[in-house]
Amino acid sequence: MTEKRTPADVLRESRRRDSNDKRTRVFRAVDQMKRDGTDITFAAVARTAKVSNWLVYADGVRDYITAAREHQAAEPARAKRSGRLATDASLRTDLELARQDNRALRQEIARLKTILRERLGEQLEAESSHSLRQRIDELTDANIRYQDENTRLTNQVAELVDQVRETEDELTGARTSLRRMIRDHSQ
After folding, report:
1. Residue in 60, 63, 59 with CA at minimum distance from that of residue 71
2. Can you give the pTM of this predicted structure?
3. pLDDT at 84
4. Residue (of 27, 62, 67) closest to 48 by Cα position
5. What are the φ/ψ torsions at residue 40 (nearest 5 degrees)?
6. What pLDDT does residue 102 have?
7. Are residues 54 and 14 in the same domain?
8. Are 94 and 86 in contact (CB under 8 A)?
9. C-beta neighbour count of 48 within 10 angstroms
10. Percent of the chain with pLDDT over 70
11. 40 in helix, strand or coil?
12. Are 34 and 60 within 8 A, CB to CB?
């Protein structure tokens, strides 16, 4: 038969199971952080695994986290050797290419702004030239009317001048005739 377990035995076994579960959660959290590329720190592991900071420094767990941190620290050097990590020269080249692209884009924007300004100016000129053409047509019509009226008035003035001359000639003739009559009558 089975031995009778005391409450202390039950509590001890429960704590052992709980400790094993927490350690397993820590190991899984470290493995997940390695896969994700998340920085592995003792505090981050404790937070991710939802365990106390004390547990991550316990024997066995601390060694596992330290080994993962060392592996993660060596990863950039391995990536650089295998060509997966960009070198300073390639980063500078990428930066210079990005700057050149930015310059080209700025020039293109300036060119497009200039074209837009010119087109807007042409549209404004077209609209204002249309109104100017209308105004010129109105002024031309008014000028023709005034020229016709000027010609009519000039002709009228010429007729009146002729009438005045005729009237002056008649007046001169009448005066001459009156003087003769006065002379003839006084003699």
Report:
1. 63
2. 0.41
3. 59
4. 27
5. -95, 115
6. 95
7. yes
8. yes
9. 18
10. 93
11. coil
12. no
Residue 78 placed within a domain: yes
3 has a pLDDT exceeding 90: no
Give yes or no: residues 107 and 183 share one domain.
yes
User: How is residue 102 written in tokens?
Assistant: 């930015």
Domain boundaries, position 168: 87-187
Alpha-carbon radius of gyration of the chain: 57
Please tell me whether residues 57 and 94 are part of one structural domain. Answer: no
Question: What is the pLDDT averaged over residues 129-147?
Answer: 88
What tokens appear for 46 in the block? 């404790």
Whether residues 116 and 75 fall in one domain: no
Structure tokens at 171: 């007046």
- Per residue in 86-95, pLDDT (tens digit) is 677 878 888 9
Residue 2 has pLDDT above 80, yes or no: no
- The two three-digit tokens of residue 64, written as one number: 């596992």
Please tell me the predicted confidence (pLDDT) of residue 79.
57
| Residue at which a domain ends, from 85, 110, 140 | 85
Q: How many domains does the chain have?
A: 2
Assess whether 184 and 94 both reside in one domain: yes
Q: 32 with 48: CB under 8 angstroms?
A: yes
Q: φ and ψ at 12, to 5 degrees?
A: -60, -45
Average pLDDT of the residues of the chain:
87
Q: Please tell me the predicted confidence (pLDDT) of residue 167.
A: 92
